[in-house]
Amino acid sequence: MQETVLHNQSLIDFTLHHCGTIESLVAMAVANDSSITEELQPKRVLEVPANIMKDSDIVGFYTNKNHVPAFNYSGPSSANDEGIGEMIIEETFIVR
Protein backbone atom coordinates (compact mmCIF):
# COMPACT_ATOMS: atom_id res chain seq x y z
CA MET A 1 0.00 0.00 0.00
CA GLN A 2 1.30 3.47 -0.81
CA GLU A 3 0.71 6.52 1.36
CA THR A 4 1.65 10.17 0.96
CA VAL A 5 3.89 12.06 3.39
CA LEU A 6 2.16 15.08 4.90
CA HIS A 7 3.65 18.45 5.85
CA ASN A 8 6.07 18.24 8.82
CA GLN A 9 6.05 14.42 8.94
CA SER A 10 9.32 12.69 9.67
CA LEU A 11 9.70 8.98 8.99
CA ILE A 12 8.95 8.40 12.68
CA ASP A 13 5.68 10.36 12.38
CA PHE A 14 4.76 8.61 9.13
CA THR A 15 5.43 5.18 10.64
CA LEU A 16 3.35 5.92 13.74
CA HIS A 17 0.54 7.26 11.57
CA HIS A 18 0.35 4.23 9.28
CA CYS A 19 1.67 1.42 11.50
CA GLY A 20 0.88 2.56 15.03
CA THR A 21 4.22 1.37 16.39
CA ILE A 22 7.76 2.68 16.40
CA GLU A 23 9.00 -0.90 16.13
CA SER A 24 8.24 -0.74 12.39
CA LEU A 25 10.55 2.24 11.80
CA VAL A 26 13.57 0.32 10.52
CA ALA A 27 11.43 -1.89 8.26
CA MET A 28 9.75 1.23 6.86
CA ALA A 29 13.13 2.86 6.19
CA VAL A 30 14.43 -0.27 4.43
CA ALA A 31 11.26 -0.66 2.35
CA ASN A 32 11.60 2.92 1.10
CA ASP A 33 15.40 3.08 0.79
CA SER A 34 15.48 5.91 3.33
CA SER A 35 17.36 6.82 6.47
CA ILE A 36 15.37 6.95 9.71
CA THR A 37 16.62 10.53 10.18
CA GLU A 38 16.08 11.72 6.60
CA GLU A 39 13.91 14.82 6.17
CA LEU A 40 10.91 13.81 4.11
CA GLN A 41 9.39 16.10 1.53
CA PRO A 42 5.62 16.63 1.70
CA LYS A 43 3.68 14.75 -0.99
CA ARG A 44 6.39 12.08 -1.29
CA VAL A 45 4.78 8.67 -1.71
CA LEU A 46 6.13 5.89 0.53
CA GLU A 47 5.43 2.18 0.46
CA VAL A 48 3.84 0.68 3.57
CA PRO A 49 4.64 -3.04 3.24
CA ALA A 50 1.71 -5.39 3.81
CA ASN A 51 3.75 -7.61 6.16
CA ILE A 52 5.02 -4.78 8.39
CA MET A 53 4.16 -4.89 12.12
CA LYS A 54 1.08 -2.80 12.92
CA ASP A 55 -0.90 -1.90 16.00
CA SER A 56 -4.43 -1.57 14.66
CA ASP A 57 -5.69 0.04 17.89
CA ILE A 58 -3.31 2.99 17.53
CA VAL A 59 -3.85 3.32 13.78
CA GLY A 60 -7.60 3.24 14.47
CA PHE A 61 -7.22 5.93 17.14
CA TYR A 62 -5.42 8.25 14.71
CA THR A 63 -8.06 7.57 12.05
CA ASN A 64 -11.11 7.95 14.31
CA LYS A 65 -9.84 11.12 16.02
CA ASN A 66 -8.49 12.53 12.75
CA HIS A 67 -5.05 12.98 14.37
CA VAL A 68 -1.95 13.07 12.23
CA PRO A 69 1.45 12.88 13.95
CA ALA A 70 3.59 15.52 12.26
CA PHE A 71 6.22 16.89 14.61
CA ASN A 72 9.28 16.65 12.33
CA TYR A 73 11.56 16.72 15.37
CA SER A 74 15.16 16.72 14.21
CA GLY A 75 16.90 17.13 17.56
CA PRO A 76 18.12 20.16 19.44
CA SER A 77 19.00 23.15 17.32
CA SER A 78 22.52 24.51 17.40
CA ALA A 79 21.56 27.64 15.46
CA ASN A 80 21.71 29.89 18.50
CA ASP A 81 24.81 30.55 20.57
CA GLU A 82 23.12 30.04 23.91
CA GLY A 83 23.49 27.46 26.60
CA ILE A 84 26.25 26.31 28.90
CA GLY A 85 28.19 24.63 26.09
CA GLU A 86 28.48 27.93 24.21
CA MET A 87 29.40 30.20 27.11
CA ILE A 88 32.87 31.63 27.72
CA ILE A 89 33.82 32.38 31.32
CA GLU A 90 34.23 36.11 32.03
CA GLU A 91 32.86 36.99 28.54
CA THR A 92 29.38 35.54 28.11
CA PHE A 93 29.27 33.74 31.46
CA ILE A 94 30.08 36.16 34.24
CA VAL A 95 31.16 34.67 37.57
CA ARG A 96 30.71 37.07 40.50
What would you call the quaternary organization?
Answer: single chain
Question: Which stretches are low in confidence, meaning pLDDT under 50 for 5 or more residues running?
Answer: none
Structural category is mainly alpha
List the helices and strands in order.
EHHEH
Average pLDDT level: 85
Report on the biggest sheet: 2 strands, antiparallel
Radius of gyration: 19 Å
Q: CA-to-CA gap between the ends?
A: 63 Å
| Fraction of helical residues | 25-40%
Task: Please tally the helical runs, counting DSSP H or I stretches of 4 or more residues.
Answer: 3
Strand proportion: 5-15%
Overall geometry comes to elongated
- Compute the number of strand runs: 2
Q: Biggest sheet: strands side by side, in what order?
A: 1-2
Q: In summary, what is this structure?
A:
The protein has 96 residues and is mainly α. The chain contains three helices and two strands; from the N terminus they run βααβα.
Structure description:
- It is a single chain.
- With 96 residues, the chain is mainly alpha-helical.
- Helix content is 27%, strand content 6%.
- It contains three helices and two strands.
- Strands 1-2 form a two-stranded antiparallel sheet.
- The relative contact order is 0.23.
